[in-house]
TrEMBL record:
This is DUF4352 domain-containing protein. It comes from the Bacteria. Keywords: Membrane, Transmembrane, Transmembrane helix. The chain crosses the membrane at residues 12-34.
Amino acid sequence: MLESARSRLKAWIVAGVGTAAAIAVAGVLGAFAARHEPLPALAPAGRIETGQWLLRPLKAYATAEKYTYGALLRPGGKALVLELEMTNRTAKSTKDYFDLLQASQKTVDPATKPFIVLTRDSTMSPELHPGMPERMAYIWQLPDGAAVPASFNLTVISKTYKPRDNLYGLPGWFNPTPIGTMTIPVGAGPDGADMQP
């Protein structure tokens, strides 16, 4: 009887020590996992793969024109424009590019979405067809009275393809994740040359 009580007590102590050790290890691993590694810097004149899209930034500039590729600016307002070549790498036409680029908080209000325009005919937010590179313009309106920056920072977002999502069992692109940042020099106007790769 005494022997079985001792063995039970020993088992509880071992289990308690094991549980405490497991909690301590989980806490240490959690602390390491919580550390965020900085995002890689992407070359602004290179090609960038984001899953759905192949991007090639071309040029960035500021404008105070009332209309920029058909997008109407506020009276007296200024905008930052990023022109880039975009190629749809998927099997069907899509306009799933609204959250592809996020401008830094220092430059524009992050709650402000850009106008996105096809430059060749000023079509707003068109569907882009598979495998056909198109020149697009992302147009962010600057806050009133804001100075035009010499450069601006963008975060590039990628999504992952799933043949079946968990909710509807349908294919699609999910889980938007930042894959890198790039700093784009801001030129004087739309007539400047494209960046060289």
